[in-house]
Write a structure and sequence with these properties.
It is a single chain. The protein is of the alpha/beta class. It has 2 domains: 148 residues, NAD(P)-binding Rossmann-like Domain (Rossmann fold); 97 residues. It is built from 11 helices and 8 strands. It has an 8-stranded mixed β-sheet, with helices on both faces. Helix 4 links the parallel strand 4 and strand 5. The longest helix is centred in the last third of the chain and has 32 residues. It starts with 17 loop residues before the first strand and ends with a helix. The site of NADP nicotinamide-adenine-dinucleotide phosphate has 24 residues, from helix 4. NADP nicotinamide-adenine-dinucleotide phosphate binds next to helix 4.
Length: 267
């Protein structure tokens, strides 16, 4: 069945939505570029000036004071750092019909409901910058309709049943830089042996990204692919066993548990 364009305002042409960003930093910018390329009308707050100016100049975003961003938008993305929300949100006037998308790690729905009242339509999600080119899974808690309409199918929306589950997905997102760090160690080791660090970085990155992009995503695929490689007597099995026996998996579990607690102290 054909996807129906999301259109809050019946006067808006071609399913275009009026979208406002509160906080125009690292994660807002790729979302704005993705949405502007699809013809949505975007308003952004001025700070960070270099980012908002570039979004205005190159992608047609309208830069405005925060309340003007709210007043001119139907969908509001909250992209502030958690410690900034109490400086910004309490002084703003939200509307009951605002649809709120929060990307702010660890800001609970009851806090959002208080700060954004009378708005009551919320979704919390976890974008990563590569959403701009597609392929970013968007774990989402709340009313996922807006996310589906704006970002899918390029970026698949993965609904989750609770805030605790969403926070666990945040922790897994933090695994990405952890894995990059491991890969950098491997690439450095390769560069030390070849005296060609640039080629070592390229080979390591291309190897892992090429492998992952060819892989299935079904439940069990990770273990299946690992076991297909790490068979008896192979250097692959030597690698997986050494990492396990020398504590790499214990370290990962411990980091995930600590991050999970930080995001959700009640868990
Ligand atoms: N970065 C990621 O990959 C990522 C991924 C998923 C979720 N998140 C979440 O996204 C949120 C933002 O992260 P970020 O990395 O994008 O941080 P960031 O780059 O620091 O963006 C925050 C933005 O808010 C602006 N700001 C601060 N005070 C403001 C005010 N009073 N009025 C208007 N704007 C104000 C900042 O401007 P100044 O620069 O002038 O201070 C900055 O542009 C965080 O809650 C984080 O958990 C980030």
């Amino acid at each position: 069945m054909a996807r129906r364009p999301f259109c809050l305002d019946p006067r808006s042409p071609r399913g275009m939505s009026r979208i406002g960003f509160i906080g125009t930093g690292h994660i807002a910018a790729p979302m704005v570029r993705f949405l502007a390329a699809r013809g949505h009308e975007i308003r952004v707050t001025r700070r960070s000036q270099a980012v908002s100016s570039a979004l205005a100049a190159d992608h047609g975003a309208i830069v405005a004071d925060t309340q003007i961003v709210l007043d001119g938008s139907d969908i509001i993305f909250l992209c502030l750092r958690p410690h900034q929300i109490n400086d910004v949100l309490p002084s703003l006037t939200f509307r009951a019909d605002h649809k709120i998308v929060s990307v702010m790690a660890g800001i609970a729905s009851d806090t959002l409901a208080t700060l954004c009242a009378p708005a009551s339509d919320f979704v919390q999600t976890i974008p990563l910058g590569f959403l701009e080119i597609g392929g970013c899974p968007l774990a989402a808690f709340g009313n996922t309709t807006v996310l589906e309409a704006l970002f899918a199918p390029e970026n698949p929306v993965v609904p989750v049943a609770s805030e605790t589950a969403l926070n666990a997905h945040f922790a897994i997102c933090a695994m990405v830089p952890g894995l990059l760090d491991m890969m950098q160690t491997g690439a450095n080791w390769l560069g030390d042996h070849t005296q060609d660090p640039a080629a070592a970085d390229f080979f390591t990155t291309q190897l892992v990204s090429g492998f992952l992009s060819a892989m299935d995503r079904d439940h069990g695929a990770l273990a299946r692919e690992r076991d297909a490689l790490a068979t008896d007597g192979t250097i692959s099995l030597q690698m997986t066993q050494t990492l396990r026996t020398q504590g790499a998996h214990d370290a990962l579990h411990s980091a995930l548990n600590a991050i999970g607690k930080r995001l959700d102290p009640s868990s």
